[in-house]
Amino acid sequence: MKNKLKSFFLILLGTFLVSFGTYFFLAPNEIAAGGISGAAIIINSIFPKIPIGILMMAMEVVLFTIGIIVIGPVFGGKTVFCSFTISGMMLLLEELFPKLHPLSNDVLVQLIFGILISGLGMGIVFNQGASTGGTDIIGKIINKYFKISIGKSVLIPDIVVTAAASWVFGIDKGLYAILGVIINSTIIDKVIKSINTYKHVAIISNEGEKIKSYIVEKLDRSATVYYAKGAYKNNEREVITTVISRKEFFKLKEYISLIDDKAFITVNEINEVLGEGFQNII
């Protein structure tokens, strides 16, 4: 239940960041940096009476149906929630801040801020096994079948939207949009990699029993124990290895420093862990 609430909160946070970055930085400058939001900005510029939120909802209905069929109902259900949450947030922002003008005359700065914020949100959502809807569903399908990173997978359909942006808004806005989708692709991969980074820790200590108990009972993680012979004194020592998150590592390191400040610890950073207690293998 706790994990489900955490996932729900993270998805809600991610969708808010996508909505915020799009509405306050990208839409006022007519920067269609890919995705359904970009396509909606293009259509809205041609038919300004149709709200961006309504356009996004209409296009998402078709694409999330495809997502449910191709990827599965869990992904589809989460994506439906994300899609309509973003659309709803966009409609709410349009009501609260109507006829929003660019925040400054520097389009490039606003592009960077908009993409940084929305890209961070998309990375959080993707890491929860969902997508923000629209062309991101296409990206997720590409990621599933061609094993391309999710950031690069999202880039492929977004290039089509940016090409349309170049035709509608002119080559200058189109180039901004292309730059935007490239930055967005990079940010998504960086966010997911950062979230999924773990520490592989090996410990040699005279307080091995206490450390094992702390890992299992306090951190709720498992550990592997093996024995190695030192080359200098030729004595056999117990080596405790475990895989933990960054936050858990700081707690473990602090605990070890309190009970054995002469312990020997090696740490390796790993970007993906599959199996019980971590991500599912499939």
From TrEMBL:
Entry's transmembrane regions: 7-25, 31-50, 62-87, 107-127, 148-169
Q: List, for all copies, the residue spans of the domain called DUF2179.
A: 221-275
Where is it predominantly found? membrane
Note whether ATP-binding occurs among the keywords: no
One Pfam family in the UniProt entry: YitT_membrane
Note the InterPro entries from the entry.
DUF2179, N-reg_PII/ATP_PRibTrfase_C, UPF0750_membrane, YitT
How is this protein situated with respect to the membrane? Answer: Multi-pass membrane protein
GO CC annotation: what is one? plasma membrane
Highest taxon above the source species: Bacteria
The listed locations are:
Cell membrane
Q: Which UniProt keywords apply?
A: Cell membrane, Membrane, Transmembrane, Transmembrane helix
Q: What is this protein called?
A: DUF2179 domain-containing protein
